Amino acid sequence: LRRFTEAYRQVARLPEPTLAPVSVADLFADLARLFDGQWHGEARLTIAEVGSLIVSLDRSQMVQAMLALLHNGVEATTVTDLPPMVRLSATVSTDRLTFHVADDGPGIDPAHRASIFLPFFTTKADGNGIGLAAARQIAQSHGGDVTLRATRPTTFDLSVPL
What we know:
Order of helices and strands: HEHEEHEEHEE
Radius of gyration: 15 Å
Strand content: 25-35%
Shape: globular
Number of helices: 4
C-alpha cells in the first residue's frame, strides 16, 4: 500500500514545469552519471553525440522522465540472454526536439500497447506502472508527448517543442 501511495503521489502532484535553458549535452551527461549510479555497470548506456543544442525545459522533471524511460529499457533487456544495453539519442526538426530511448528487449506485446501509458498498468510482478505514465505526463506538461515509435528495437520517443 505504501509503494502504491508513493507511486500515485508521483503522478498526481507533478508541479507545473519551471522552464530554463538546458544544454542537451549536459542533460545527457547527467543522465549517464545517474544511470551508472543506479546500474553500477550491470547495464550499459550508449549516448549519441548531440552537439551544442540548448532547449527550454524543466531540467529536474526531464531527468525524471528520461530516467523512467531508461529504467524501463534496462528492465526490458534483462529478460533476454544479452547484457542489458539502452541507447539514448536526440533529433531536431523545425519545431521539436525528440529524445529517443531504444532497447533490444523482446518488444511490447501487441495486446499491451494500448495500455502501457495508463497509470498503474504493469506487466512486471514488482512494477508499479508509474514510469511511462509519469514520463508522458512530464512531456505533455512541456507541450510534448511520449510515444512508442518501434517495437524491435523497442523505441520510445519523448518530444518537446523548441
